[in-house]
């Protein structure tokens, strides 16, 4: 018997992070108040994830962190479940190279 600790509650969105952050995407949940996201960095470089309640927030938060900054670093090849506000917007930037980022809203660990 297989157990899945993460239940999808919306469609997966994808963007390609590069040295210039792409237009933010919104990860919509079909449940009221859903605020967990499975985030996969399938690339070989660190991505600095910008996020927020509006696309402008996500775009402004996507900065390469050198000493301090609002972005969340996603190491290359990681698969994480993180909590943000419901129906968040996401984008990302890299110091070099590109990486595909997959974000699925859901519930679980």
Task: Summarize, please.
The chain is mainly β and 109 residues long.
Model description:
The chain is mainly beta and about 110 residues long. The protein has one helix and nine strands. Strands 1, 2, 4, 7 and 9 form a five-stranded antiparallel β-sheet that branches. The chain has a four-stranded antiparallel β-sheet with strand order 3-8-5-6. It starts with 5 loop residues before the first strand and ends with a strand. The mean pLDDT is about 95.
Unreliable runs, pLDDT <50, ≥5 residues? none
Query: Count of DSSP helices?
Result: 1
- In N-to-C order, the SSE pattern is EEEEEHEEEE
Largest sheet: 5 strands, antiparallel
Shape: globular
Quick one: how many beta strands?
9
The rounded distance between the terminal residues' Cα atoms is 18 Å
Computed CA radius of gyration, to the nearest angstrom = 13 Å
The whole-number mean of residue pLDDT values reads: 94
Structural category: mainly beta
Approximately how much beta-strand content do the residues carry?
A: 35-45%
What descriptive keywords fit this protein?
109 residues, mainly beta, four-stranded antiparallel beta sheet, 1 helix, globular
